[in-house]
Amino acid sequence: MSLFAGAGGCSLGFQQAGYDIRYAADIDADAVESYRHNFGKTPCEAADIRELSVESALERIGLERGEPTGEGPPD
Questions:
Q1: 45 domain-assigned
Q2: What is the pLDDT of residues 21-74, one digit of tens each?
Q3: What pLDDT is attached to residue 15?
Q4: Domain that holds residue 35
Q5: Rounded to 5 degrees, what angle do the CA atoms 3, 25, 49 make?
Q6: In this structure, are residues 2 and 25 in contact, taking their beta carbons and an 8 Å threshold?
Q7: What does 51-67 look like in DSSP terms, one character per residue?
Q8: How distant is the alpha carbon of residue 26 from its chain centre?
Q9: What is the pLDDT at residue 54?
């Protein structure tokens, strides 16, 4: 999950390190548009994280609280 996603620079770094970014959010609509252009398969929305609950974020990426998110980057 990428919060304060911007255009996706940090997401790109994590992706190159082997992580799977499954959801992104930024408060700036122009940044969200750029992120969607750069990472079309990753759901990204304009959202104020002060109003984004953990449960709603997990629901958006198909996980439940406490569920493992994966094994991390490959060795």
A1: yes
A2: 989 999 999 999 999 999 999 999 999 989 988 888 888 888 877 776 655 555
A3: 93
A4: 2-61
A5: 70
A6: yes
A7: G--HHHHHHHHT--TT-
A8: 9
A9: 82
